[in-house]
């Protein structure tokens, strides 16, 4: 796979799966915009990518003005965006009855409305250029549900359905839209959960280990590559066998 000359935006690119995707795209020749809310971490992450292939852009996927500023900068500087990878997301294991209004709003804004608003920002320019790849990182929680993650599962399930519907709209314009669903992946977000939950996850995973961020990023990169030109509206799980959908 090669991305020479391609312009890529990774939303949520400062750490975890997002940064692994940034590194992978850049290594394959892409010029990558690393979008993240954490300015300090984002700048450091972008600077660590060899060859000056990554550029930090401050991006809050829950804020339309931030999204539009990001879009305007990329389209002004490069004139196009070839790949939009929506990796930004957040969740926390908590009983549904304990979810506050603020918690629910944050989960839905980040995991469902974020990908929707990002697509709204860049879909028109992709239609105009008659090409584009959109990859949304959801979760297997959105495919089968997850104990203690009811709202998160609902938001991710919505992102999966949005992927499928947008793929139908994009197909006639040579725009492919696909979804990658990670299982438990060894990221700072996962490690912030209590140890008892991590142990339960490991027991349930047939491969008996957490996924590596790079392993999920590889799926994102494949879906964004020319190897996947005839693939759209699909959902690919990367989970060590934890969930095997029918």
Task: Tell me what you see in this structure.
The chain has nine helices and seven strands; from the N terminus they run E-H-E-H-E-H-E-H-E-H-H-E-H-H-H-E. The protein is of the alpha/beta class. The chain has one domain (7-237): NAD(P)-binding Rossmann-like Domain (Rossmann fold), CATH 3.40.50.720. Helix 1 links the parallel strand 1 and strand 2. The radius of gyration is 17 Å and the shape is globular. The model has no long low-confidence stretch (mean pLDDT 94).
Regarding quaternary structure, how should these chains be classified?
single chain
Q: Compute the number of structural domains.
A: 1
SS-based class: alpha/beta
Radius of gyration: 17 Å
Distance between the termini: 29 Å
Shape: globular
| CATH architecture term | 3-Layer(aba) Sandwich
Helix content: 40-55%
Number of helices: 9
Give me the CATH fold name: Rossmann fold
Low-pLDDT parts are: none
Work out the number of β strands.
Answer: 7
Please provide a brief summary of the model:
With about 250 residues, the protein is of the alpha/beta class.
Which helices and strands, and how do they pair?
Blueprint: E1 7-11, H1 16-27, E2 31-36, H2 39-47, E3 54-58, H3 64-78, E4 83-86, H4 101-129, E5 132-137, H5 141-144, H6 150-171, E6 175-182, H7 188-191, H8 195-204, H9 213-224, E7 235-238
Parallel strand pairs: 1-2, 1-4, 2-3, 4-5, 5-6, 6-7
């Amino acid at each position: 796979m090669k991305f020479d000359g391609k312009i890529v935006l990774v939303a949520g690119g400062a750490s975890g799966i997002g940064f692994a995707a940034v590194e992978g795209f850049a290594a394959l020749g892409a010029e990558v915009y690393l979008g993240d809310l954490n300015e300090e971490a984002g700048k450091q992450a972008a600077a660590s990518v060899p060859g000056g292939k990554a550029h930090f852009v401050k991006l809050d996927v829950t804020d339309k003005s931030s999204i539009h500023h990001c879009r305007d900068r990329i389209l002004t500087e490069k004139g196009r965006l070839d790949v939009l990878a929506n990796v930004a997301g957040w969740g926390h294991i908590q009983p549904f009855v304990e979810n506050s209004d603020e918690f629910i709003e944050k989960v839905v804004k980040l995991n469902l409305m974020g990908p929707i608003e990002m697509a709204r920002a860049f879909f028109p320019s992709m239609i105009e250029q008659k090409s584009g790849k959109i990859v949304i990182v959801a979760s297997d929680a959105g495919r089968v549900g997850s104990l203690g993650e009811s709202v998160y599962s609902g938001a991710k399930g919505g992102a999966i359905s949005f992927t499928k519907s947008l793929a139908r709209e994009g197909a006639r314009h040579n725009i492919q839209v696909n979804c990658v669903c990670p299982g438990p992946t060894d990221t700072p977000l996962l490690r912030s959960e209590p140890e008892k939950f991590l142990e339960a996850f490991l027991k349930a995973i047939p491969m008996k280990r957490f996924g590596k961020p790079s392993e999920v990023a590889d799926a994102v990169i494949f879906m964004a590559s020319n190897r996947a030109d005839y693939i759209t509206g699909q959902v690919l799980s990367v989970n060590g066998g934890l969930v095997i959908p029918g």
